[in-house]
Amino acid sequence: MFAYIPGLMFKPRATWRKIAELSDEQIKRLLPYPIIMALLPALGIYVGTTKVGWTVIGDDVVRLTEGSAIPLIVLCYVALLGAVVFIGLMVSWMSQTYQIESFPIKGVVLMGYACTPIFLAGALAAYPIWWLDIMAGTGAAIYVIYLVYMAVPLMMGVPWDRGFLYASAVFMVALVYVVVVLVGMAIVWEYIATPVFID
């Protein structure tokens, strides 16, 4: 399950081919991967915000109380895993448009492995340096897009030209999900799980 990580990072095309060649039963066994890997960013953020802290201006270190960080970290995990599941289900649902036989877990596994750079970059939040986290997150997001565009034709068995359109539709679904999550986070942050800061 985790053996595909180095390949996705350094030899993605060959790795996607290997995953695409797996039987349906073998693909179903890969489902725990995003469930476990989505813990990395959540745990990284928890450690970074409660134990290490960050500086905004000057030398004052800002941290969150553990009690206020836990609901935010749980919501972060749910949002990240929710993205993998929702977009994965949309990948499977859109397969009907391209006359492909698929099943929901296949789409979720595809998105779970495509999000590997986000999972790994999220672990850097354990030591929150704002410029490093922004650079790592931006680079990871760009690489995820690349992985999705590469994975969809190989995993779903469509020609590259149709696969490009298919992956573009997946990308649009992901953008809508991100906007909804950002609005939801702002509401939760303001009215439900307001963080408590300590110096």
Q: Main traits of this protein?
A:
199 residues; 3-stranded antiparallel sheet; 3 strands; mainly alpha; single chain; 10 helices; elongated
**Which bin fits the share of residues in helices?**
over 70%
For the sheet with most strands, the description reads: 3 strands, antiparallel
Strand content: under 5%
Distance between the termini: 41 Å
Query: What's the total number of strands?
Result: 3
Number of helices: 10
Strand line-up across the major sheet? 1-2-3
Which structural class best describes the helix and strand composition?
A: mainly alpha
Computed CA radius of gyration, to the nearest angstrom: 18 Å
Q: How many domains?
A: 1
Order of helices and strands: HHHHHEEHHHHHE
Poorly predicted regions are: none
Average predicted local confidence, pLDDT: 92
Principal-axis shape equals elongated
Write a concise synopsis of the structure shown:
This protein is mostly helical.
Question: Any overview of this molecule?
Answer:
The chain has 199 residues and is mostly helical. It has one domain. Helices cover 74% and strands 4% of the residues. It contains ten helices and three strands. Strands 1-2-3 form a three-stranded antiparallel β-sheet. A hairpin with a 5-residue loop joins strand 1 and strand 2. Helix 2 crosses helix 9.
Indicate the topology.
Layout: H1 4-10, H2 12-20, H3 24-28, H4 32-37, H5 39-52, E1 54-55, E2 61-64, H6 66-94, H7 104-114, H8 116-122, H9 130-156, H10 160-192, E3 197-198
Antiparallel strand pairs: 1-2, 2-3
Helix pairs in contact: 1-2, 2-9, 5-6, 5-8, 6-7, 6-10, 7-9, 8-9, 9-10
